[in-house]
TrEMBL record:
Name of protein: Patatin-like serine
Protein family membership: Belongs to the PLPL family.
Domain PNPLA: 80-298
Entry-linked PANTHER family: NEUROPATHY TARGET ESTERASE/SWISS CHEESE D.MELANOGASTER (PTHR14226), TRIACYLGLYCEROL LIPASE PTL2 (PTHR14226:SF66)
Superkingdom assignment: Eukaryota
Amino acid sequence: MEALLGALGTCVRKSFSGIDNEALYAHCHAGTKLLIEKYVDEVVASLAEVQSHLGSDPLFDERVRSFLHRSQRIFGRTCLALSGGGGLANFSWGVARALFEQRLLPSLICGTSAGAVVGATLCTHTDQELVELLTASQLSQLLTSFEEPRWVTIRRFLTSGTLYDAAQWKPKIEALCNQARHPDLTFQEAFELTGRELCVTVTARRRHEPPLVLSRLSAPDVTVASAVLATVAMPFLIPAQRLVCKASDGRLRPWVVPSSTEAPNAAAPGSGSPGSGSAGAEWRDGSIVHDTPREQLAQHFGVSFTVASQCNPHVVPLFIALRPTAGKPAISRLQRGRSEWRGGFALSAVLVLLLSDAKKWLTLLRELQIMPLILDTDWSGLFLQDFMGDVTIIPPLGLKDYARMLSDPTPAIMQRYLDVGQRETWRKMPMLATRLRIAHALQALQAAFSDGTDDLTGARSTRAPSQAEALSPGYGVGTPMKRRDSKLCF
């Protein structure tokens, strides 16, 4: 067993021997390499074998403990990043449903703007509740933020500068955040309820303040509903919002930004003082600066693999897969040649040149601080930030989809969003399963240390899974595990 544990310490790492390289999955519409499948099966079986020997020798248990801590740094965590996009973000419901049904939904979910609505719903409802909720009929009843007539929204924009009323959106967002069963859920309470961790990105209204990634580490007592309402506050939709936190006595009050927000482990629940932040600070749409905050996720949560659901209307048309991607192989014999450039090398070179040149000029305008402000906002970040993940799921958009950006979905339209989102996710499923099966086995091994006692991080967890569960391709993700503060997750 000592030799087996040593071998696992060598091969359990991100993209061992390049198995996470998307080019390996771009030769067919489904499936992967048999060699990779055999390798993953062997790693999962070996981890289950290590789990079966826990408790036989205290020294061996200590080595397994060290192996798990090392694996967290080397293998890292997987995060599902859900972008904004108004009504187009409804495609992310299909992405979430496909991953949830296959038990491949990551335990860490980051949402921005409309994507935060999807993420908050996933992280405030248990698995049993999600089974009933992730249907076209249920979602179409809850997603009613754009129900006002157009003439009402236009009149409001001419008088107040925003199309919609935040007071009308608040109860609808609270309903999506499970307000009826669990009033005023905070980030920490949502994690304890479902075992899933939520991150929400918000941008400060004042231009010189840095954006924030709200989570149970940086803002444990902030209510999820107030964070979602802030991140959907696009300047022309609703006004910037204040964040609300729950005090120890259960009362709600404005949240003060702790001085240690950038060091999340130092921010104690309810921390913050008048001198360290501003209780009156207003926040708005996070996609203006950080739609997919990969750097912050890596720093705060040890994320090394990001699955991005990208639905932004200004990003999807510019995302051109010049070469075959996972689930979308070359479609002609010419494309299966040496270069495999879609449309030929010359056309691909022209597209890359045009996009690079546009980005260069936008960067120059921003660095010289001569970018014109529209609605008192610098919009250059919408085009200059990195929107992609290690795996990026992008739905095919048509003109009708753009026309529905500010419209509530009917059951029929919602069903289309779900179907298209699931179909695009299935193209990436073999690549995702390769990584997440190992992550599930590591999570099962970690849970085996608890079984009613303190686990590796001093927190209490659920029972240790059986060897059969650990070998199951779908075990682990989405299983509620109530933990007070667990830093060791996969």
